[in-house]
Specification:
mainly alpha, two-stranded antiparallel sheet, 2 strands, 8% strand, flat, disordered N terminus
Length: 101
């Protein structure tokens, strides 16, 4: 991260890391979308726009950015992990059929 920061209330938010931005942009359209959403979240949290409920808006931007990044080629499929978590949550058992197993 670079040393530039923006003041947002009592928090200092780091400016966009241009190296990270370049790496994201090189991944294509979905990562471009994700970067834009993350930048929007940064703007909201830095106080730009005088929006109501900025925390919820920033959360939505970050969730949407994460969704876009998870759809990039080469990202492992998270559906199997979600199924495993759901199984443990509902039955209390892991793959071996016994608790925590």
């Amino acid at each position: 991260m670079n040393d530039k920061t923006m003041q947002a209330g009592r928090y200092d938010l780091p400016a966009v890391d241009e190296e990270l931005a370049g790496a994201l942009l090189a991944q294509g359209e979905l990562s471009d979308l994700a970067l834009g959403l993350l930048r929007n979240a940064h703007r909201v949290l830095s106080g730009a726009g005088g929006l109501e409920r900025p925390g919820e808006i920033a959360e939505a931007c970050v969730r949407s950015a994460a969704d876009a990044l998870l759809k990039l080629p080469g990202v492992p499929d998270t559906r199997m992990a979600a199924k495993s978590v759901a199984q443990v949550a509902t039955t209390g058992t892991g793959r071996g059929g016994s608790p925590s197993g």
